[in-house]
């Protein structure tokens, strides 16, 4: 009889209070920061209580009281008793229709008195107080160890079947965890390519971007995977924000590197303005959404510019992936990092990976073609250096010097041997230091000086002796000069080098000037020497070199530009 009377009294109290209470279904709760006893807080007295939005509850460290009306949905006869799912950043005690429902941690007036509760809890409702309809939920909350100033400390309140609530929570994690595995595998694949296949900057950035996106998905899933104590929530949010900033910076950088955007400032200005706006945005979720939105806008602008420049194939595919991600972002901008991100960026990164793989295959085909052409043309150049006419003239001159000028013969033999030693040493290399190339050129000038009975010099200005160049690059230019000119007096060849800022990075420019001789024949064209130069440059710097030549008043001028 006593228990029945107590139940009836509590139920009558809940009905009386619920008539005046705001409803959680409407997103409203009442809060009271006074130090009330449970009896007073549960009495239904309206004095000292104020109504606020549920997602804006932030009453400091507390303890404070919260109450609202929660609806129990209808259920079939014989269905399990429902449960109440709560997510509150703090320690709390909960009463349901005036009866104690459960505790999460220990509410305290000081940090030492408080025992932190976990961020999520699932409490079964009492069998006698789970009838469909409105019920009164009252909570006493403290949050001394939060570690940051949140927009709201109450995340959700929901009544339902316990098994269904747990299943919904786990099913929400499955797609994100699948995408997490895919992103990790893609990231490791690209980093391995950088390590083993000498991938470029775009490959490295794409790999790091995949891992950064995986880290963001992991931070979003951490809450569902490990129901941690609420003080760890601040750590999770900060790690999540760091992952968002990494993704926001790496995405346009990857698009920039993939398509060789010539205006470097465009990426940084756009990102800078977007990230500067984060200072004025309250809350972690809003900051994350603004950062990702700015990143998508800048990346889309870069992809549009690449498409308008006529970048082959890839620009349109990247633009399609960015538009897909942007559409999902616009559907829910403030919750994008929590719900739409793993779908949007997963699809986008798959597109970027496919585009990158296609471009890599194209570059590999160009490299292999250039290598085969360079090897074939190298054999032709060696055959030309050993042709019978050259050998007969060389041996005839050598025979005469042996009899008349032995010192000159020794000098010529040493110079000729030096030329072939250098050619044999560098012929199999992709690039060699400029110092070795200059040694080969000076040895060749020594040979030609002996043959022509005069002196030739090679002057350099601004050169970096350690800079990589294709083997026999300058040597071929010298051979072309002697093929198209007859030099009967001392002449000086000049090589100037300088660094220029152009495109996506600094470039090294070489200007070679061959002076005019007597009996000059028109140069240029696509002879063996010119084809060898282009093949070697393509092999060493695929798609990133430039070769221009033509006559000037001072002689034949050749300009070569390669990445620094």
Automatic annotation (TrEMBL):
A matching Pfam family: His_kinase
Origin: domain of life: Bacteria
TM annotation in the entry: 170-192, 199-219, 239-259, 266-284, 290-307, 314-334, 340-357
GO molecular function terms attached to this record: phosphorelay sensor kinase activity
Cross-referenced InterPro entries: Bact_2-comp_sensor_kinase, Sig_transdc_His_kin_internal
The keyword Cell inner membrane belongs to this UniProt entry's keyword annotation: no
Keyword Signal (UniProt): yes
Range of residues in the leader sequence: 1-19
Keywords: Membrane, Signal, Transmembrane, Transmembrane helix
GO cellular component: membrane
Ranges where the Signal transduction histidine kinase internal region domain occurs: 378-454
Name used for this protein in its record: Signal transduction histidine kinase internal region domain-containing protein
Species: Myxococcus llanfairpwllgwyngyllgogerychwyrndrobwllllantysiliogogogochensis
């Amino acid at each position: 009889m006593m228990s029945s009377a107590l139940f009836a009294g509590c139920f009558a109290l809940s009905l009386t209070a619920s008539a005046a209470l705001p409803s959680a279904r409407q997103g409203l709760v009442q809060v009271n920061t006074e130090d009330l006893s449970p009896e007073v807080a549960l009495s239904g007295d309206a004095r000292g209580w104020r109504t606020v939005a549920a997602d804006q509850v932030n009453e400091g460290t507390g303890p404070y009281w919260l109450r609202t009306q929660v609806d129990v949905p209808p259920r079939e006869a014989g269905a399990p008793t429902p449960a109440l799912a709560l997510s509150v950043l703090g320690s709390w005690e909960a009463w349901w229709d005036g009866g104690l429902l459960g505790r999460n941690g220990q509410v305290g007036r000081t940090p030492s008195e408080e025992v932190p509760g976990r961020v999520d809890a699932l409490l079964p409702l009492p069998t006698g107080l789970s009838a469909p309809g409105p019920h009164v939920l009252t909570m006493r909350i403290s949050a001394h160890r939060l570690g940051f100033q949140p927009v709201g400390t109450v995340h959700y309140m929901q009544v339902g079947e316990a098994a269904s609530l747990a299943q919904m929570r786990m099913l929400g994690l499955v797609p994100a965890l699948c995408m997490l595995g895919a992103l990790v595998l893609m990231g490791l694949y690209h980093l391995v390519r950088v390590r083993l296949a000498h991938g470029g900057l775009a490959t490295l950035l794409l790999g790091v971007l995949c891992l950064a996106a995986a880290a963001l998905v992991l931070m979003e899933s951490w809450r569902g995977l490990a129901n941690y104590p609420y003080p760890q929530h601040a750590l999770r949010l900060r790690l999540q924000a760091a992952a968002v900033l990494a993704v926001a910076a790496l995405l346009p950088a990857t698009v920039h590197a993939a398509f060789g955007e010539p205006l470097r400032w465009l990426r940084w200005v756009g990102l800078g303005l977007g990230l500067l706006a984060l200072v004025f945005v309250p809350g972690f979720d809003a900051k994350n959404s603004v950062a990702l939105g700015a990143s998508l806008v800048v990346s889309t602008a870069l992809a549009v510019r690449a498409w308008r420049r006529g970048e082959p194939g890839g620009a349109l595919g990247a633009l399609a992936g960015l538009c897909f991600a942007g559409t999902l972002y616009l559907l829910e901008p403030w919750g994008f990092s929590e719900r739409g991100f793993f779908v949007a960026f997963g699809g986008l990164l798959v597109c970027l990976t496919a585009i990158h793989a296609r471009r890599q295959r194209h570059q590999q085909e160009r490299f292999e073609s250039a290598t085969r052409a360079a090897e074939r043309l190298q054999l032709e150049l060696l055959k030309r250096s050993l042709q019978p006419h050259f050998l007969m003239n060389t041996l005839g001159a050598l025979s005469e010097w042996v009899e008349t000028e032995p010192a000159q013969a020794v000098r010529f033999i040493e110079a000729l041997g030096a030329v072939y030693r250098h050619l044999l040493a560098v012929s199999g290399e992709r690039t060699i230091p400029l110092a070795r190339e200059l040694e080969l050129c000076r040895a060749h000038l020594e040979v030609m000086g002996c043959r022509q009975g005069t002196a030739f010099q090679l002057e350099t200005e601004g050169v970096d002796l350690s800079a990589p160049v294709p083997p026999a690059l300058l040597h071929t230019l010298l051979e072309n000069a002697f093929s198209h000119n007859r030099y009967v007096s001392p002449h000086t060849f000049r090589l100037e080098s300088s660094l220029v800022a152009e495109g996506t990075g600094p470039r090294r420019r070489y200007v070679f000037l061959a002076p005019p001789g007597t009996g000059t024949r028109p140069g240029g064209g696509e002879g063996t020497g010119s084809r060898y130069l282009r093949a070697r440059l393509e092999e060493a710097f695929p798609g990133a070199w430039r070769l221009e030549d033509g006559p000037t008043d001072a002689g034949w001028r050749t300009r070569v530009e390669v990445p620094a």
